[in-house]
């Protein structure tokens, strides 16, 4: 499918969703048992798209949101960078050292099975209510996504390619640079696209549970006074925020994977 058609379909999905939300929250379906108008999506619980957009505009126009957005951005980027780097390095190490992978396999699985929300108060106790408790919570989410993808990507390298490379006289460093790393790169970026959102989730959940600033703090404050419009406005900012970071990852990915055959396009 051509790029313009794909973008048109993506926009169509957004328009339909917003239209359903708008009609469901503003057009009554009839009268309820109490004689009052009945809405599919009552404003008290769902607000309206126009109210949410107006609140987002107000938050940016007043400058209220910039400080909170900057704090969440720093926390998410630190979590993303630390978690991704650790996942790549340890994933490569485990994939190249089967004995190490076998020894630590049950411990990695046990740590991955821990609910991250349980770790949030522990990190708050260890690192305080500043940014680092949120950063390390995000790291625990990012690390395992990247680690498992890199580990699997290195293990998926074709034995035939490895044999041919060794026949040509490549040493381990050359194999890492010219065989293992290119083979794992697609897996790495696949995990990075997923982990961007999880880095933000870690930061926001940490802020939600205990902080004095950040987008999670704003959402928590709005929720505490039943300000549904404020909650949805914070969520909308978060979604756009994640998409912007993911776009940056895509810009970095394209030149690094230029050698990879693209998908067959149909018009």
Task: Please give a structural write-up.
The protein is mostly helical. The chain folds into two domains: 1-46, no CATH class; 48-256, MetI-like fold (Orthogonal Bundle), CATH 1.10.3720.10. It has eleven helices and two strands, in the order αββαααααααααα. It has helices at 3-26, 43-46, 49-61, 64-96, 98-113, 116-127, 131-155, 159-167, 172-209, 215-224, 228-256; strands at 30-31, 37-38. α4 (64-96) runs antiparallel to α9, α4 (64-96) crosses α10 (215-224) and α9 runs parallel beside α10 (215-224). The longest helix is centred in the C-terminal third of the chain and has 38 residues, at 172-209.
Number of domains: 2
Query: Average pLDDT value?
Result: 83
Strand residue content: under 5%
What is the CATH H-level superfamily of the largest domain? Answer: MetI-like
Estimate the helix proportion, in percent: over 70%
Separation of termini? 5 Å
Biggest sheet details = 2 strands, antiparallel
- Roughly how many Å is the radius of gyration? 23 Å
What pattern of helices and strands is seen along the backbone?
HEEHHHHHHHHHH
Shape: elongated
In CATH's first tier, which class of the largest domain applies?
A: Mainly Alpha
Structural class of the helix and strand makeup?
A: mainly alpha
Features:
267 residues; mainly alpha; MetI-like fold; 2 domains; two-stranded antiparallel sheet; 11 helices; 1% strand; elongated; disordered C terminus
């Amino acid at each position: 499918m051509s790029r313009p058609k794909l973008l048109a379909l993506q926009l169509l999905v957004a328009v339909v969703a917003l239209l359903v939300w708008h009609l469901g929250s503003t057009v009554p379906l009839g009268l309820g048992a109490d004689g009052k108008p009945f809405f599919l999506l009552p404003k008290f619980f769902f607000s309206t798209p126009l109210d949410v957009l107006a609140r987002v505009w107000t938050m940016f126009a007043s400058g209220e949101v910039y400080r909170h957005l900057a704090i969440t951005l720093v926390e998410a980027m630190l979590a993303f960078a630390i978690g991704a780097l650790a996942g790549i390095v340890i994933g490569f190490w485990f994939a190249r050292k089967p004995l190490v992978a076998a020894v630590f396999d049950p411990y990695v699985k046990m740590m991955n099975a821990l609910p991250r929300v349980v770790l949030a108060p522990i990190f708050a106790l260890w690192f305080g209510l500043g940014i680092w408790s949120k950063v390390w919570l995000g790291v625990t989410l990012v690390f395992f996504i990247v680690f498992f993808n890199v580990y699997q990507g290195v293990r998926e390298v074709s034995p035939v390619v490895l044999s041919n490379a060794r026949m040509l006289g490549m040493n381990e460093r050359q194999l890492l640079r010219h065989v293992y790393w290119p083979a794992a790169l697609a897996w790495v970026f696949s995990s990075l696209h997923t982990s961007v959102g999880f880095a933000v989730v870690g930061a926001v959940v940490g802020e939600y549970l205990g902080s004095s600033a950040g987008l999670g703090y704003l959402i928590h404050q709005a929720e505490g006074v039943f300000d549904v419009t404020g909650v949805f406005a914070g969520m909308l900012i978060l979604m756009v925020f994640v998409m912007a970071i993911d776009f940056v990852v895509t810009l970095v990915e394209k030149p690094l994977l230029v050698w990879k055959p693209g998908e067959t396009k149909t018009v």
